[in-house]
Amino acid sequence: MQVDIINDHLVYRPDNIDQHRVVFPELKVAEVRGQTYAAVPLSLANSQLLNNMGYTPPTPMRTAYKWPGRYKPYKHQLITAEFFALNRRAFCNNGLGTGKTLATLWAADYLMSIGAVQKCLIVSPLSTLECVWAKEIFINFPRRKSATLHGSRQKRLTLLNENVDFYIINHDGIGTIIEELRQRRDIDLIVIDELAVMRNAKTERFKTIKSLITPEKWAWGLTGTPTPNAPTDAYGQVKLIKPENFNGNFTKFKNITMVQISPFKWIARTGAEQVINQVMHPRIRYALEDCVDLPPTIYHEREAQLSPDQQKHFTKLQREAATEIDGKEVTAVNAAVLVSKLLQTACGVAYAGDERAKLDFGPRLNVLKECINEAKAKVIVFVPFTGALEALHTELVKDWTCAIVDGSTSKGKRDTIFNAFQENPNPKIIIANAQAMSHGVTLTAADTIIWYCPPFSNEVYEQANARIIRPGQTLHTNIVHIYGTTVERKVYGVLKERGKLQSLVLDLLKK
Q1: Residue 76 contacts by C-beta under 8 Å, 6 or more apart in sequence?
Q2: Please, are residues 439 and 414 in contact by the beta-carbon 8 Å criterion?
Q3: Are 317 and 345 in contact (CB under 8 A)?
Q4: Are 415 and 443 a contacting pair, CB within 8 Å?
Q5: Rg from Cα positions in the chain
Q6: Which of 3, 69, 316, 414 could form a disulfide with 57 if both were Cys (CB 3.0 to 4.6 A apart)?
Q7: SS3 506
Q8: Which residues pair with 431 in a beta bridge?
Q9: What mean pLDDT do residues 444-469 have?
Q10: Closest CA to 96 of 277, 366, 287, 370
């Protein structure tokens, strides 16, 4: 039921005038053309009451909030921010690329500005701590301060003791300072990004974060893919944010949302989505294609830390232009080769002559999997080195249907892969060397390209992205840059700006 703002009042048509007089002592009533209208002073508290009564009210954000930052909110971001302000506990399932991070921060900033909350704890994947959350706060909220609680326990505690507005920490980092976080009564808003990782209510991670969300605190859960594997993925999320929405255990929830068709196979029941809508409430959901005012292609950065194994050899290569991995000597004879070796090390498979030296690349693999899970449609993963490409295929095929396209893939096989990708459910993912498919191919079944590592060619980068950004594409598209080093991040920057990569190589090596 619609509510309008007129002369600093919320004006609406009440369904039960006597009930509304009890709820709102300051209620004003008027007859207009035979219709009864009610008006209450515009305030967040009154908006929240009307929201709880089934109305769809605006909030004072519409008129009083300044919406700081370099961007004006899109309509769906404004609605999302108001949704958060109206609901102490809420689910946001806006898709990848819809700007839900900034909408969340606007809501938090507004609540801080009116004294409704004091400080905010943001719990998110390691890959988004700095390059997403901290970056958005720094750029758009000059009056707010943030601290990224990452590193040793002592470092996290030192940062936690800083007087800032936003504390940012990864999901598994909570446990290292949980007792100190529990004592911080002033941290009264908790935002959990990628909430779907909390789908299992039996894990220590779930129990630890659950202990922070006490009844008096605000808590918002964000994920574009609430049920990536099965309807039962919603169970842990509901028990974390709105446990009162479902009175039962996991087995009961599974029986309501799934049906067993063989001794080892369960499938979603008809009507499972309706059950999820009921228990994940209040919930807001904007798919990327619903946001018609957004640009058609959105670029994202994801940070993947180097494993200790990668960091050791990366540092040695930078210093000495040589390192030994599992008895294999990896050397660089000139500037271009050195940069290539550094990127190979960051990917997890370096070349020692004709041999391959494999390193632990678990952190980058986990970030890649996060990005794949966030994609609405199919995905193309570009990997510039054959060794890393094949290593990724070995890992990803455990969870998704994948096809490889590189220089050794025959034309006939490529055509078969591309046709299946466009016309059939499988494969879900193409893992490719960008040079092998950077011209002429239409792959608009995908909405997301993930660069596992940057290429060293502007032309290859632009042409490869054009596989999904082309006529016939009906979806908003996402280009994701995964990086773990300064070298990679700078290369991506030059690629986006169409700068000269040769100059960048020389500059990096001078440093």
Answers
A1: 94, 98, 99, 103, 286, 290, 291, 293
A2: no
A3: yes
A4: no
A5: 25
A6: 3
A7: helix
A8: 381, 404
A9: 89
A10: 287
Classify 338 as helix, strand or coil: helix
Please calculate the CA angle 231-302-315 and round it to the nearest 5 degrees.
130
How do strand 258-262 and strand 265-268 relate by DSSP bridges?
antiparallel
For residue 53 the two structure tokens come to 């009564």
Angle between helix 233-241 and helix 250-257 axes, rounded to 10 deg = 130
Token couple for 504: 């960048």
Q: In this structure, is the dihedral angle defined by the CA atoms of residues 40, 46, 50 and 51, taken in order, positive or negative?
A: positive
Q: Tokens standing for 475?
A: 């979806």
What's the maximum distance between 2 C-alpha atoms anywhere in the chain?
89
Q: What is the residue whose two structure tokens read 């608009």?
A: 444
Q: Is the pLDDT of residue 41 over 60?
A: yes
pLDDT tens for residues 267-316?
999 999 999 999 999 999 998 777 767 667 889 999 999 999 999 988 88
Residues 6+ apart with CB under 8 A from 334: none
**H/E/C letters for each residue in 155-175?**
HHHHHHCCCCCEEEEEHHHHH
Reading the block at residue 318, the tokens are: 């930078």
Which tokens sit at 7? 């002369």
CB neighbour list of residue 281: distance below 8 Å, 6 or more residues apart = 91, 242, 245
- Supply 495's token pair: 């690629």
- Scan for tokens 């029941």, then name that residue: 269
Q: Which pLDDT score, from 0 to 100, does residue 149 have?
A: 97
What's the gap between Cα 340 and its chain centre?
A: 29
Q: Which amino acid is at 387?
A: G
458/435 Cα distance (integer angstroms): 11
Are 497 and 299 a contacting pair, CB within 8 Å?
no
Sort strands 477-483 and 349-352 into parallel, antiparallel or unpaired.
unpaired
Strand stretches in 377-438, DSSP E: 378-382, 402-405, 429-432
User: Do the Cβ atoms of 91 and 174 come closer than 8 Å?
Assistant: no
Residue 448 host element (H or E):
strand 446-451
Mean pLDDT of the chain: 90
Each residue of 316-375: pLDDT tens digit?
887 776 666 666 666 655 666 777 888 889 999 988 777 888 889 999 999 999 999 999
